[in-house]
């Protein structure tokens, strides 16, 4: 006999997500994320990323349902009605896993501090003032671009390649490709440089060439660090998270479908 999974329900503060939270807890009960077999996140992509940052270290699979503005990382929300064949427990049991490996960012600031953070979508460097950023790009300790003059630049994972990266005209990456995208944002010099595809284990280091006159911030998903002088990014070697998706709309299919939108 299959044991009923223990579910930790988490919800964004919106009225819709809070209403769904109340309904689902009444039907299935509630446990702490540390004691759960599955974490169920109710909200949009921003809340999903927040959930992964807060609870990803627990190693629990996360099943999200869209109750927010954007839901690329979420399943559709449906009323938990067993008679309609849409019972949550059935959906979780039949869900397909997608294993994501985040990026690790280490940012050194003008004040001498070093700040570390994870990014499941992307790490972006952005100019803080009206003046363009000037930065050098090193890959695995070798300088590949002496000076990039731009509004910014980012390193994106496959899961995040359809988000900010795609808006900046970066490539969409298939899940499991072991590739990350290096994408400039409004590059002025070199004018024709459009970025690069890199092996996922590449260490990317950005050195800010004039940090006092042209300050730059670094953001790992939603965690921003201001006034950086050097930022190192690499794929995490020891951290993964597992997202669960309904078979008919899994993450791999969504990423593929994004490449054929006309």
Automatic annotation (TrEMBL):
EC top class named in words: transferase
GO CC aspect terms: cytoplasm
EC number(s) recorded for this UniProt protein: 2.7.1.23
Domain of life: Bacteria
Protein name (Swiss-Prot/TrEMBL): NAD kinase
Localization terms from the record: Cytoplasm
Keywords linked to the UniProt accession: ATP-binding, Cytoplasm, Kinase, NAD, NADP, Nucleotide-binding, Transferase
Main localisation: cytoplasm
